[in-house]
Amino acid sequence: MRSFLAVCCFLVCLGAEARPQYNEFLNSTTDIKILVFLSAKCPCSQSHVSHLNELKTTFSEFSFFGVITDSEKDLENVAVEEYFSSNRFQFPIIEDKGQVLVKKFNALKTPHVVLVQKSMSGSYEIVYEGGVSDNRDFDKSRVHYLAEDLRALKKGLKAPYREGKSLGCYIRRF
């Protein structure tokens, strides 16, 4: 497993500009942290929001964070800003200016998940990367990678999935 502590140090050193929730992510001491890369313009990403909110409620002891993958130009669009500013999300949203998180975690499509767990040494290690489910449209999915991993981790078991294919909209690099 890769050390997440190095990732956090890298991000702090770069001085990634983000909403205040970015510091909340870095400073969170929960054993499990979940980053979900999202887009206001991607129907695949949008179809998973209700499920992600349910997971946040079910696994309230874990820290969930959304990461905006839309470009800064897109964020100037009132509809995009309203989408992320609304009460639609039950977890903090990080504005990833410069795509620091997108690039560091090689997020390819939305929704993309990075699940990290605190190790015995106190550093964070990535235990899962990939899609939330096995389908672009959550209602048609049969395998719920993130939910199954969270259930296992809550029981003190090893996560059954290390990676899953992200099946949504490509994240445009800028």
Describe the structure.
Helices cover 34% and strands 21% of the residues. The protein has 174 residues and is of the alpha/beta class. It has a single domain (4-25, 33-170), classed as 3-Layer(aba) Sandwich (Glutaredoxin). The chain has a six-stranded mixed sheet with strand order 3-2-1-5-6-7, sandwiched between helices. The chain has a two-stranded antiparallel ribbon with strand order 4-8. Strand 6, helix 8 and strand 7 (163-164) form a beta-alpha-beta unit.
Shape: globular
CATH class: Alpha Beta
CATH superfamily: Glutaredoxin
* Binned strand content: 15-25%
Q: List SSEs in N-to-C order.
A: HHEHHEHHEHEEEHEE
Distance between the termini: 29 Å
Q: What Rg do the Cα atoms give?
A: 15 Å
Helix content: 25-40%
Structural class: alpha/beta
What would you say the CATH architecture is? 3-Layer(aba) Sandwich
Mean pLDDT score: 86
Query: How many DSSP H or I helices?
Result: 8
pLDDT under 50 segments (min length 5)?
A: 9-19
CATH level-3 fold name: Glutaredoxin
Number of spatially distinct domains: 1
How are the strands of the biggest sheet laid out side by side?
Answer: 3-2-1-5-6-7
Number of strands: 8
Largest sheet: 6 strands, mixed
